[in-house]
Design brief:
Length: 861
Amino acid sequence: MRFDSPQWLLLVPVLIALAFWYPRLKLWEPWRALVALCLVVALAQLSWQQRSGGLDLWVLVDRSASAEEGIAQRIDEWEAILKNSKGNADRIQFIDYAEEAMLRGDQETMQYTGGKETTNTALAIRDALGRAQTDRSNRLLVLTDGYSTVPMDQLGRLLRQKDVALDYRLTVPESSEDYQVADLRLPTRVRLGEPFLVEVVITGNEDGEIPYQLSRNGQELIAKEAEIVDGETRLRFTDRIDEPGGHQYQMAIAPETDALAGNNQRQRWIEVASGPRLLVITSYPDDPVADSLKRQGFLVEVITDPRSLGIGNLSGARGVIFNNIPAHLIPADFLEALKFFVRGQGGGVMMVGGEHSFGAGGYFQSPLDDIMPVSMELRMEHRKLSVAMAIVMDRSGSMGATVAGSMPSGFTPTKMDLANSGAAGAIELLGPQDAITVFAVDSEPHTIVPLTQIGPNPAPLTDMVRKIAPGGGGIFVYNGLQAGWKELQKSEAGTRHMILFSDAQDSEQPGGYKKLVEEMVKEGVTVSVIGLGHPADIDADFLRDIADRGNGRIFFNDNAGDLPTIFAQETVAIARSAFIDEPVGMKPTASWLQLAARPFAWPPEVDGYNLSYLRPEASSAANTTDEYNAPLIAFWQRGAGRAAAVSFPLGGKHSALIRAWPQYGDFVQTMGRWVIGNELPPGIGIRTKLRGTQLDVELLHDDSWTPKLATRPPRLQTAFGNREEGSEQVWQRMAPGHYQATLPMRPQEVIRGVVQVGEFTLPFGPYMAGSEVEWSRPREALEELKAVSRLSGGGDRLELSEIWDAPRPPSYVDLSFWFLLAALLFLLLDVLWTRLGLGFGPLDRWAAPRGSRRPDQPATA
């Protein structure tokens, strides 16, 4: 018998004293005394010891990424030993854990589905203790590499208190030879051109020379050998960056022998800050817009190779200008990241017209579409030419693979389902006067839809396309191209185009494709390719060559869920490409004064424009004078940011008239300043610090900002990766003028954020917590596991079968509930005794002289 909370027994002398000095409380009455005594015993948690012959063994299996290989090699053997050596009264339970803890249950083959980038051994231990039955003896065994990423504070004391011993068995022997990049340190933010220090710590349990490579943004900076002396070496490098934005450093080592390869590299992001910066993404080598902005004193970063764009380019930028660059050349991740850049971080976006811009550039239904103040579809009444389109689709065996997510009807889609959906959507975007033919190809083409005019009801055609099923083998590309060309030859439409959809890893039979595509091009046919996969896949060059020779576009995407959008973009770019290459009159509106302080002397005409339509909440600063009255300059506010559309070209062959305009430079400057937005007033700023998987954000301000923040507190929003959906974080006020927030991060996850102060924004990021948090092997983590095990009465179990022979601590039954029940019973008896007017004889007479009236004593006047 024992008391788990004996401190409550100190209430006994207190209650005795109260009963003696304050008899009116009647604590001397038996029923009340028993109530008080039962409550004290319940609070003290009286437990009754009972013996049990059986032992409940809780096996905690480390499923994290760093322990996965070692566990996989031994887990079957270890589990067999434990099961075969246990007694009849013994029981065994398995809990798989890493980032989460999951009870395996009866299905022994159940796979661990939680995150594997952290090791939370403390969570698994607490989960097992919460499930353990107190009327049986319990013991814990953790199978792990020994390196938890979460501290195990107070667990030793908790295990000892509950009489549960913790044993462990390491998956990798401590003596195994291992090297790791233990640390990579650099500032999170520096100024443009400012020198800074890069520090690297490499550790190993054997001395020697280790090759290493330090790179920045994928480009090698240093490649040498580091000498490990006494288990460690420290390297220091200085660097400076003359390009603003986010930059990624990586340190990698390549030892000849190594126990764990996962801890051989580390990555860190650094943000190079500068003044308000404009990012100009252009198809012109000497972009006139960028040159004009530079002459006006803007800090401009010109991108002529859009394939190099990434989230880091948005760091420190206040605006992005797309100048006649097609959407398919820009990485999808970058376009997706623009949503949070504009709506959350308060950035600006402007699109400039041209033959490769707006709908003609494939931006319809792209991530940029709903940011723009104009819609990019071409209404049916404005169609001038009919289109004949052939869609040649890969139906090889690889198209039968399922894709995460679900279709509207709820079933899990295959790659074929999503490709079918994209092709059906393309048909729906065509007009009644257009024609379509569709082929499904494996080793030969199968006619799904012969060349057919779509007419007023495309549903029968889309129904046939949605029923395409995957076949076998690979796709014979030449046969598919040839079949589509034969059908297109039957059409006299003004625009004839072919879309080839194929797996970038399984496209067979090039055959005489060069001659075939050349023949199609001579007849005015264009060919675009949608490749499912990566640009580096084995057949990617083959598919890219078809698109190049066919004067079309090439799309590579390994996410089948994006196929419907890609099909839609390509269809609109061909069928509804509304770039009008004839001069048109310009008519300004009063809304221009929302952008500039004074009116301009506008040119009478522009060289051409992209036909689009003003969205309901947007404003137009100038329209065309033709039948469409289309917006030439449109703008609106989007969340914290802003977006503008200049529908006429500002460069290239369709810009002679506008570039001869005397106020061309003033116009470009005005639009640039509006896109950048308001300058941040002095007296406020942010400071960030990355610590492992934790980002600290501090907001600092002087007294001039105190009244403003008192009426409108600052907001902190974050978004992960390129996603727009973010979450609002909670500030902690540390001192006057000092706010702080701590943001937890997952390894390998990129975070971006913004502090919104009234109408102003202070963006930060991207930052990334490297996967090395899981792969690092700090000695302190292993020593902590050993210390917790020793304190609980456990140890290293080299022979697993002997765990059943270990001393079994007695189990206890908590009697608190029964004492609480007894207290309630005695309380009811006390009420009944009082109602009946019963007394307690001598006890009543003892209390009377001390000021209490006995129940049978009459009251005096």
